[in-house]
TrEMBL record:
EC numbers for this chain: 1.3.1.70
InterPro entries assigned: ERG24_DHCR-like, Sterol_reductase_CS
Gene giving rise to this polypeptide: TM7SF2
Keyword Endoplasmic reticulum annotated: yes
Source organism (scientific name): Cebus imitator
Pfam families: ERG4_ERG24
Protein known as: Delta(14)-sterol reductase TM7SF2
Amino acid sequence: MAPPQGPRAPLEFGGPMGAAALMLLLPATVFHLLLAARSGPARLLGPPASLPGLGALWSPRALLLWLAWLGLQAALYLLPARKVAKGLELKDKSRLRYPINGFQALVLTALLVGLGMSAGLPLGALPEMLLPLAFVATLTAFIFSLFLYLKAQVAPVSALAPGGNSGNPIYDFFLGRELNPRICSFDFKYFCELRPGLIGWVLINLALLVKEAELRGSPSLAMWLVNGFQLLYVGDALWHEEAVLTTMDITHDGFGFMLAFGDIAWVPFTYSLQAQFLLHHPQPLELPMAAIICLINAIGYYIFRGANSQKNTFRKNPSDPRVAGLETISTATGRQLLVSGWWGMVRHPNYLGDLIMALAWSLPCGVSHLLPYFYLLYFTALLVHREARDERQCLQKYGLAWHEYCRRVPYRIMPYIY
């Protein structure tokens, strides 16, 4: 007889029907965006001008390239790390170990790509393969998610995620049953979270920049800005890789289709949308406007990095001089809630910085099309939804202390607005 699993978490995303719909809608959205970016009208809303046939989606060459990419990133993950960090305590009181070598993987990938280009690697051919690459990435996500679901069937109850044991196979396949699926020391969720998708995103951006230089003689200022802004963001995420160990994705969510597809397919092929748009729809950008956009991105990054660094410093050592003077609220769990500094301004100042940067990434694309602003619209919806999930969990965890925190810090993301 299986041991009791305890009370199950309430279903999210509309339950099984919502999960099934999202497993169709999310891949369809990726392909719609890829087709729209290269079409003449570049419409975000409305059907694409033409639908690709199977021959345009399936390519053995794309499959081999995709598997080689995953293999390369897995090999870089297994290299000796500059640091090995411990995750949060699990239900069984153990703490998993994680290699902190994501930035090292980014640098080594850049060196390998640079060497390849000097030897004649046709990186500019990559933009023509985005559709079949997205297709094999989507297939990979479905097959990988099935493997994860089957693996979770033999996992101990203590290894299951809070929301991944509903008993409905569609919902559990989507959300993920096991919290930290591993084979030996290789952690699938941690690997996918920041490696193949994020590094793949900036590689696709670079390929689009190279292709633009081949077509027009040199990359546009707008393309340089988009590449630079997004490389800074990815480099920052990988440099501060250890911080991901305390995020909801790692500590709460199971690893199923939602995260697998998001990490390896959604991120590289939709987050590169601005660069895709600029390749097919070049936009003039004068230096004064470029300077304003750079300032907007700098403000967003300053808020984003300042808030995250302050939170991480406080979690590691509340006595650190940089955070020792901040005002806090005590909770029944023994943890302290920050109510001054960045976290006294709004409850999620890092989300505010994220959204300001998202605006800066879209502005180089001009204002004649809505399509390059998809990321800003989507990310706003994502962060509002994630903030609501955070609120529910924090209320359950901290109780009265969370009510007091919300009274002291009434705004969620945007001061005086939301």
